[in-house]
Amino acid sequence: MKKISKILLAILIFNFFVIANVLAVEKTNITVNEREKYSVAVNKVEYTSIEQAGLQLREGLKKRKNIISVTFITSTKLDDSIFKQVVNEAVKHTGVPTEGDYIYWQCSEWEADSDYEYLNGIYYYTLTYKFSYYTTYEQEKEMDIEVANLLNTLDLSGTDYEKITKIYNYMCNNIVYHYSSKDEQIYSSYGALINKKAVCQGFATLFYRLALENNIDARVIAGIADGGPHGWNIVKIGNEYYNIDTTWDVNNIVSGYKYCMVSDNNFKDHKRDNKFSTNEFYAIYPMGVENCTLDSSKVNVEETEIYNLADLESEISSEVYIENSEVVDVVLKDTIESTRINTVWTTMIYLVRDFDYSNLWKNIISEAINYNYMRIGKNESEV
Prior knowledge:
By secondary structure, the protein is of the alpha+beta class.
């Protein structure tokens, strides 16, 4: 396994770096009325619960603000743990596509400090956070448009299994694994959807958003795979969850998907971080015992055969990749005719027939990727 960079090894997957510097400023020479007038004058809303403070921080994160001030009132002097408590609340899984894991994994790092005033037995805290992101607010607005366009194009009707399969096919056909130390967008869903290149963190956050946009619950899971830090998803079908790893299946389109809707029993080469493997987490997100397969009673025979052949065709109207020592983006001139393909040999005949030889060298230069890579996200957190 290649080591990508010293920076990644230091930061790992989503390193929430906290600098907590609590400055005690005891101002006892002001009255309660003066304090209230001051709060109104500076338009400060002061909260008394972690939930309220987290909501305030979440709204700032969604707008990709770099500096976010959160006010908090308590009768007890706080320690440094207040910073993480508020962040945990802000990035908790809510089921909203642009919140939860989507925010969490698109922040690169943060630091915080605080000051407070003490008046008549009450502490008035101001927590000031400084966040860095992989995307800007303007880029997120662009994402909103592109996500809507993609979902309309994919026509995500039918069962949850069918919707997930269409999303999975799209991602494996149209996004390539790509690492560059000069391009931080590869860690974001923006890099995956807009630039069509990302590392596992970008793949996982995009799948998370696309699933939630279709009312399918999902989470981003961090852990170890192939000896290094890695990120993937779990997705809900019925009452159970299944593992999804689009990053690793980008290289398996022709040979067959191996990491799509897989049970833990068949996912032994992935090990979750501790916070995703507790009894409490599994109680909330119970995993299926066996791999999830298409229920033939819910679709007609032809649809069943097409999805069973996804490992050969991977949506015949999309791009197709051929695996060797490199992955080459092969663009088909015409849509492969609707005749069902039953063997890899037949698939190769179609590829040879429709291959655009005039652009062969251009395709190899622009899209070839060495897949002897370290599958890694960026920035690990205990949050």
